[in-house]
Amino acid sequence: MHVKYHKWFSKNLHRDMELKIYGEHGLTLLAFPCLGGRFYDFEDFGMINVLQNHIENGQVKIVTVDSIDGESWANHQAHPFARAARHNLYDNYIVEEVVPFINNLHQKSNEPIITTGASMGAYHSANFFFRHPDKFKGVIALSGLYHAKNFIGDIMNEDIYFNSPLDYLPNLNNNYYFEKYRQSNIFICVGQGAWEDGMLEDTKKMKQILQSKNIPAVVDIWGHDVDHDWPWWFKQLPYFLDNLLYKLNTN
Question: Which of 141, 205, 215, 250 has the highest Cβ tally under 10 A?
Answer without folding.
Answer: 141
